Amino acid sequence: MKHEALLWVLVLVPAVTGALSLLLRSARTILGVMCAGVGISLALGWYVAGKVLMSGPVSAGGEWLYLDALSAYNLGVMLLNYGLSSAYASVYFGVELREGRLTLHQARLFAGLWCGAMAAMTLVFISNNLGIMWVGIEATTLLTGFLICVHVTGESLEAMWKYILICSVGVAFAFMGTLLVGASAHGLGLSAPEVLLWTKLQAHAGSLNPICLKAAFIFLLVGYGTKAGLAPMHHWLPDAHSQAPAPVSAIFSGITLNTALYCVMRYVPIVEAGTGNTGWGLRLLTGFGLISILVAAVFVLLQHDLKRLLAYSSVEHIGIIALGVGLGGLGTFAALFHTLNHSLCKTLAFFGAGRLGQIFGTHDMRKLAGAIRVAPVWGMGLFGSLLALIGVAPFAVFMSELQILKAALDGRAILALVLFLFGAGVVFMGILGHAIPLAWGKTTSTVQPARAGILETLLVVVPLMFLLVLGIWMPEPLQTALNAAADVIHHVNPVLAGSSGGVMP
Amino acid sequence: MNAFSFIPLLLALVLSPLMLGVINRTKAFFAGRHGQPLLQTYFDLFKLLQKGVIYSRTTTWIFRAGPMIGLAAILTAALLMPLGKCPALLAFPADFLLFAGLLGLMRFFTVVAALDTGSSFEGMGASREVFFSALTEPALFIALATLVRETGRLSLSTMFGQASNAHWLHSGPVLGLVVLALVIVLLAENSRIPVDDPNTHLELTMIHEVMVLDHSGPDFAFILYTSALKLWLLGALALGVALPFSSGNPWLNLAMALGGMFGLAVAIGVIESVMARLRLRVVPQLLIGAGAVATVALILTLK
Amino acid sequence: MMTDLILVLVVLTNLKLLGSSRLGSSIRVVAAQGVMLGLLPILVHVHELSLHFAALAAGTVALKGVVFPWLLFRALREAEVTREVEPYVGYITSILIGLAALATSFWLGGRLPVSTGEPASLLVPSALFSIFVGLFLIVARKRAVNQVLGFLVMENGIYTFGVGVVAELPFLVELGVLLDAFVAVFVMGIAIYHINREFDHIEVNRLDQLKG
Predict the structure, then answer these.
(1) Quick check: C12 and B303 CB within 8 A?
(2) Cα gap C163→C10, rounded to integer Å
(3) pLDDT reading at A69 higher than 80
(4) Is C211 part of a structural domain of the chain?
(5) Is residue A287 part of a domain?
(6) Is residue A285 part of a domain?
(7) Residue A33 sits in which domain range?
(8) N or C terminus: fewer CB in 10 A for chain A?
(9) Is C104 contained in some domain?
(10) Residues A435 and A330 in one domain
């Protein structure tokens, strides 16, 4: 089957592109090749993901590669964001090239790492072997670490040090968890190459050793949770996000966090079945989610740096996704939907923050006041994405959060409901309080108004339209995909169109 | 109780000063000197016993009682300590607690006697002695508890009688750690290098010697003899763990134990020759380390 | 028996790391630990010795006993530091915390139902203890070198667990550990170098300009 071969190609394309960009001699060509490579991956990936969603899982390489609805959906979301971010990166670094702030060496480094990270993340989604999945996360950590300090400054080195140190510990924990999962499969009679295959473990989940599995899940949740930015392991996140170049911040928030959380989602069905469907693992996930929401709510109020604000907002949204998965039922569906919404929204926000930062020369929100007058396109884009992020009504984020609330109500999780509403409310006020002066406040600095090209306008309009449309009407294929993906995590009755798109206040 | 049980006590009383001689000769050998005679400690004791005593007018009866109570305590402790496989004169459950308690009593009166002189030097020595022993005592107790746990016996004599080479084969790490902890305790309690230098004449750095500066004549002889006995008894304790081998013949066992004791003396001499005294600041770390080592041993037996 | 001896020595070296302020001696201790753990796969699987375990042992000894210490000593020279100053948690307190953690590790190790052979009942507790000590060093020490050492010790703990408990897992995953350690230290070494150059200091504590 050619779909199986395509799984290999999916990893190879970005890897080859990355290697190629190390050889090229012009920074512009490098950015162009990078975009082309990502574009090809995007097309291929969507094609394969579409096939999987329509006609069931695909596997290759002796079952080591495997794509089912959950991974296909996440892969699709990741590729979409990578495509947008790559286009944005060519704009962002194009400006730096014009100003002479990007050397050829830095461009090579950036493109190589960017494509390498993409290959690593693709590997995470398509591997069936949980060990290889871990290798993918580990490689992502190492590659993206250097992306933070494309421009070497004291602060970016500090951010990189924190990121690598904290995440390497997290990755080590995740490895320990993976080993424990392997240990829990002792005595199952699986052959050595089969032990860590997700499909095999899933099939035998009921007979895994529950105590080992619980220990494993704690290690995994803390380990991958560190990488996903769940509080209280989120300390690296604001620094890394604020110091990295804007396109890198965008993939950090929009993609790597989701990728790490995807790894946790992979384990949820195994752990649930292995511990007798008591909801033990889900409660842990709910707890971490709520802590993240509340911690983010407190810190959002204290921020002055726009990108740090967005970083804490990411902590909140990752918390919301974890909460959704933890609640189960409709929550799982909504959490996956929220993954898409948050990624789109956050990448857009970082696009705006990055370009405004270039125009104003700062990320301090007090100095960015009146952004809409100075740079209408990016100002509107940022303001729109901020509104979407805090869950203002017609946008899709509002819908997914509403569904999670409904899931909490359905599950009688009143405490979770109250804490979630409280946290989301504080974030709502906190960010809105920053966003309005940012958009319309009195301009404090004398910055020349900047015009945006067609590509830049498209980069703002497309994600915003996406978010707006998804908030009002959910297309049939997306709903099928979400149901199929949620079904991998939890066997529940599929969510009907009425309860997802129809709950308009 | 048979006649045989008197032997450890007699050997301790007779041979303990010789152990100091062996240590000194070893050190002299390493320094390339001829060194003092092996029996020098006996000569010192004899000489001191001949002399009169001088008491400062500031001291009270406590100062006079100190050396005597110390000697009495250590002699009682000697009743409890077996030598190798040869059981002690007195053996009853938990006698090791009494043993440790007697050592504590001896120390208490040495310290009180030192404080009684009202000299700032001796007060300084007393404070150091108390500080360090506060760190060695947990190590000693934890090591003893580990032995109890390991052998399942509650008395020093039966403990050592029970211990055999099978223990080394089965739980070698535990015994090794206990011996290590006990040797550190031995060195610290007897003011040997690397904790204290017994030959130093610089009062500022001394611990034990500085406490007994004001004692003279027979009193000082008592103190000298007490510390020789203390070295012997703690040495016997470490040795009993280190060499639990039984040959079957009691006389041969005894000879082996004696050989072990003097081997230990040589080992102490070697340690003193090759190591430098630690700075006072670092000593607590060493002693805590001994406690940590003993705790690891205890945890290993508890699992 | 030999396995037990090695594991006890690993526990002792961990305690030594908790109580030591000299970075040079800490690096040597970690190197010694790496060499001892390198021998572990041979000893644990003495009955089913294969080329695979021999290769694993050789690789581990070379990497953890030679390459890493060498890189770290280089980093130390570049940075011109010799000792930890004013750690967040004092040395004696650290040792006491370590002892408590050791007891906890044994308790947890007894409750975790993983099948280790009878002669290697110390494997899981000492692995957990190493993980804890590593984590503690990362958190409680200020020097970047010490934090790298902490990561290595944690890594050693995971390695101990992997070798002892799930040795039948694919080769690739075991290599993954080495890769991880290698790359992590490599990356960190470069990072130390950079940080040192940028700040003339490798004290992580000074890296606190980003707050909130």
Answers:
(1) no
(2) 15
(3) yes
(4) no
(5) no
(6) no
(7) 1-128
(8) C
(9) yes
(10) yes
Answer yes or no: do A270 and A328 share one domain: no
Please tell me the predicted confidence (pLDDT) of residue C211. Answer: 55
Alpha carbon of A175: minimum distance to chain C alpha carbons (Å): 8
Distance between CA A24 and CA A19 in Å, rounded?
10
How close is the nearest chain B Cα to the Cα of C5, in Å? 6
CA distance B76 to B70: 10
Q: Is the pLDDT of residue C40 over 70?
A: yes
Contact A144/A256 with Cβ under 8 angstroms? yes
With vertex at residue A274, the alpha carbon angle to CA A270 and CA A275, rounded to the nearest 5 degrees, is 120
* A171 contacts C183 by C-beta, under 8 angstroms: no
Residue A286, domain member (yes or no): no
pLDDT at A17: 92
Q: Both tokens of residue A330?
A: 């409709």
Do A14 and A34 reside in the same domain of the chain? yes
The pLDDT of residue A423 is 93
Whether B292 and C11 lie within 8 Å, measured CB to CB: no
Under the banding of pLDDT at 50, 70 and 90, the label for residue A195 is: confident
CA C207 to chain A, closest CA, distance in angstroms equals 6
Task: Give the number of residues written for chain B.
Answer: 303
A139, A147 Cβ separation under 8 angstroms: no
Report residue C111 as tokens. Answer: 């409750």
DSSP assignment of A160-183 equals HHHHHHHHHHHHHHHHHHHHHHHH
Quick: pLDDT tens for A265-299: 999 999 988 888 888 889 999 999 999 999 999 99
Higher-confidence residue of C147 and B146: namely B146
Asked whether the beta carbons of residue C209 and residue A162 sit closer than 8 angstroms, the reply is no
Of residues C128, C180, C172, C165, the one with CA closest to residue A171 = C180
3-state DSSP assignment of residue A67: strand
Number of structural domains in chain A: 3
Q: What share of chain A is helix, strand, coil (3-state, %, to 5)?
A: 75, 0, 20
Please indicate whether, in this complex, the C-beta atoms of B292 and C99 are within 8 angstroms of each other: yes
Q: What is the pLDDT of residue A498?
A: 40
Predicted ipTM?
Answer: 0.88
Full domain range(s) for residue C142: 2-206
Inform me whether the pLDDT recorded for C192 exceeds 70: no
Residues 6+ apart with CB under 8 A from A314: A229, A237, A241, A253, A257, A342, A346
**C-chain residues within 8 Å CB-CB of A212?**
112-114
Which tens digit of pLDDT belongs to each residue from B192-238?
878 887 776 665 667 777 788 888 889 999 999 999 999 999 999 99
Chain C and chain B touch, per 3+ beta carbon pairs within 8 A: yes
Report d(CA A198, CA C54) in Å as an integer: 29
Tokens representing C101? 């953690």
CB proximity C92 to B under 8 Å: yes
Which two tokens mark A28? Answer: 């512009």
Residue C120 falls inside a structural domain: yes
Percent of chain A whose pLDDT exceeds 90:
38
The reply to whether A113 and A176 lie within a common domain is no
Taking 70 as the pLDDT cut, the residues of chain B under it are 1-2, 200-205
Summarize pLDDT for A28-43 with one digit per residue, the tens: 899 999 999 999 999 9
DSSP annotation string for A445-456: S--------HHH
In chain A, what's the furthest Cα-to-Cα distance?
Answer: 72
Counting Cβ atoms within 10 Å, is residue C199 exposed (0-12), middle (13-18) or buried (19+)?
A: middle
pLDDT band at C198 (very low <50, low <70, confident <90, very high): very low
Peptide bond into A232 cis (omega under 30): yes
Phi-psi sector, B84: left (phi>0), alpha (psi -120 to 50), beta:
left
Q: Which chains touch B (3 or more CB pairs under 8 A)?
A: C
Nearest residue of C to residue B293 by CA position?
C12
pTM of the model: 0.87
A94 inside domain: yes
